[in-house]
Design goal:
Elements (H helix, E strand, L loop, with lengths): L4 H4 L2 H24 L42
Length: 76
């Protein structure tokens, strides 16, 4: 039969185990914040000029280049 931890005095061990886990978590949090160097990032500036697209006519496209793929004559 399991004894009641409040009556047998084992509750002190449970509280100490819980407190030790909490203390270890707090220490890891403090260590990670102290040794973490924060780098300052430079502000990025993007060009605001609008680039106009140049229209390419069909005459300018070279037809002499060999094509890698060829369409099938009959679709399935």
């Amino acid at each position: 039969m399991i004894d009641n931890p409040f009556e047998s005095g084992h509750i002190k061990n449970y509280i100490l185990a819980y407190a030790s886990v909490v203390v270890i978590m707090v220490l890891f949090f403090i260590a990670s914040t102290l040794f973490h160097d924060i780098e300052i990032q430079e502000k990025k500036v993007f060009e605001t000029k609008v680039v106009e697209k140049k229209e390419v006519s069909k005459d300018e496209i070279k037809e002499d280049e060999p094509k890698k793929f060829q369409l099938m004559q009959k679709s399935y």
